[in-house]
Design a protein that fits this description.
A five-stranded parallel β-sheet has the order 7-6-5-8-9. It contains twelve helices and nine strands. β5, α6 and β6 form a beta-alpha-beta unit. It folds into two domains: 136 residues, Rossmann fold; 150 residues, Aspartate/ornithine carbamoyltransferase (Rossmann fold, 3-Layer(aba) Sandwich). 43% of the residues are buried. The chain starts with 16 loop residues before the first helix and ends with a helix. The longest helix has 19 residues. 39% of the residues lie in helices and 15% in strands. It has 308 residues and is α/β, with parallel strands linked by helices.
Length: 308
């Protein structure tokens, strides 16, 4: 693939295998910049990136900010609570006013699924989806793929088990699409109440409610947190019972492969979906995911501005 032609990055479904591979290959080159004594290059000098985060975020917001600065772009942060939206202005009107200031990229995180698509249709600036509701989180999926590829040297043929709150997880949906497109075999595991109906047919993944089955076959285990802020009802009897049946602890790790990789998109609820000894143990590559996040987001900013 010679050039990246997309104006926006909204989801994993709209990215081809070639486009995903280009982003991952570019991110590998970007990682070298973060290893330098002076972690900055002039690649995006003169470009302006607006980080519009209508939901709380630590890792995603900070890594996009660092990514922009390491490429010498001007980065401006805006939150929903400090924007005119609290005065009743619509998201689109706010975005149009921002575009009148001539930014090159708007990175949007919003609680409503589909919000980035509205901006992508209406604005000339590139829109990067940093998470929309329960729908998609493409940069997280790409950094997860980069992390696994660095540790395993490939994605094709690997068995990826995603365990936890699948129903409310945009990370799970994006990873089901992304890893499957790259040739991995994806299994999702959770109580029946936390897996959407039609998951197997819609995403081409294997569905199980048995934790031991998901753990035993996996080359990579990705744990997800229980997203209490998105749940409107009771999906399991108690946190204690959920942790006993679907938490990844030392006892459950006994069923896993000796070289299994443990991942988590964060934030972690220690002692609920994953125990501290597993999260901090030798199989964990959770912090590697955070490091990969900067490189992937540097690659995304570079490519949507016509860098390749």
């Amino acid at each position: 693939m010679q050039a990246f032609t997309k104006k926006d990055i909204l989801d994993m479904t709209s990215l081809s295998v070639e486009e995903m591979s280009l982003i991952l290959d570019t991110a590998e080159r970007m990682k070298e910049i973060s290893e330098r004594p002076v972690k900055k290059v002039p690649t995006l000098r003169g470009k302006t990136v607006i980080l519009f985060f209508y939901e709380p975020s630590t890792r995603t917001r900070t890594s996009f900010d660092i990514a922009a600065k390491r490429l010498s772009a001007d980065s401006i942060s805006l939150s929903g609570s400090t924007s005119s939206m609290v005065k009743g202005e619509t998201l689109l009107d706010t975005a149009r006013n921002l575009e009148a200031m001539k930014p090159d990229i708007i990175v949007l995180r919003h609680s409503s699924s589909g919000a980035p698509y509205i901006l992508a249709k209406s604005l000339k600036a590139s829109i990067v989806n940093a998470g929309d509701g329960m729908h998609a989180h493409p940069s997280q999926s790409l950094l997860d793929m980069l992390t696994v590829r660095e540790h395993r040297g490939k994605l094709k043929g690997l068995r990826i088990s995603i365990i936890g709150d699948i129903t409310h997880s945009r990370v799970a949906r994006s990873n089901c699409v992304g890893f499957s497109k790259m040739g991995a075999h994806v299994t999702v595991c959770a109580p029946p109440t936390l897996i959407p109906k039609g998951m197997a047919s819609s995403y081409g993944v294997h569905v199980t409610h048995q934790m031991k089955e998901a753990v035993a076959d996996a080359d990579v285990i990705m744990m997800l947190r229980i997203q209490k802020e998105r749940q409107s009802g009771f999906f399991f009897p108690s946190e204690r019972e959920y942790s006993r049946l679907y938490g990844l602890n030392r006892e459950m790790m006994a069923y896993a492969k000796s070289d299994v990789l443990i991942m988590h998109p964060g934030p972690i609820n220690r002692g609920l979906e994953i125990s501290p000894e597993v999260a901090d143990g030798p199989h964990s590559i959770i912090l590697d995911q955070v490091t990969s996040g900067i490189a992937v987001r540097m690659a995304i900013l570079y490519l949507v501005t016509g860098g390749a």
